[in-house]
Amino acid sequence: MTDPTTSASRPAALRVLVYSDDADTREQVIRALGRRPDPELPELDFVEVATAPMVIRHMDAGGIDLAILDGEATPAGGMGIAKQLKDELEQCPPVVVLTGRADDAWLADWSRAEAAVPRPLDPFRLAETVVALLRGRSIT
After folding, report:
1. Residues 19-31, buried b or exposed e (16+ Cβ, 10 A)?
2. To 5 degrees, how large is the angle CA 31–CA 19–CA 118?
3. Buried b / exposed e across 73-83, counting CB within 10 Å, b at 16+?
4. Neighbours of 52 (CB within 10 A)
5. Backbone dihedral angles phi then psi of residue 32, each to the nearest 5 degrees
6. Which terminus of the chain has a lower count of CB atoms within 10 Å, N or C?
7. What CATH superfamily is the domain 14-135?
8. Which of 21, 24, 26, 86 is nearest to 50 (CA)?
């Protein structure tokens, strides 16, 4: 029998949207983060998206706690989508942009993303960035 007080006090999963036209990139991000990148945060529930229209649809619907957007995706790159989301959504969740290289961080700044993580993906850096944003801390 389930104890209702335990399940009621358990926080809901955090929903993380992962956008890339490349299934391998989405898998790499999800594998790098795992379901529980930090013991003090709820589990992560991933929403995988392969097209820009689906990103917009999910973000418009709400319920996304953080978005990770592939800046190298085609035909719509994650930086352009991030800029659109920040311009159009009144309550836009934090956005992490995956850049092609560290020198592309200025483009992520233009997109108004809260953070950029360069490729090749470092699982520790990605997890640290995502955990900090989900906890509401700023990234330096």
Report:
1. bbbeeebbebbbe
2. 70
3. beebbbbbbbb
4. 19
5. -65, -40
6. N
7. Response regulator (3.40.50.2300)
8. 21
pLDDT tens per residue, range 56-100: 999 999 999 999 999 999 999 999 999 999 999 999 999 999 999
Domain boundaries, the chain: 14-135
Name the one residue in this structure whose structure tokens are 């594998």.
Answer: 31
The structure tokens 């929403």 sit at 47
The C-alpha angle 42, 38, 118, rounded to 5 degrees, equals 115
pTM: 0.89
- Residues 39, 135 contacting (CB under 8 angstroms): no
What local confidence, expressed as pLDDT, does residue 137 receive?
59
CA–CA separation, 65 and 58 (whole Å): 11
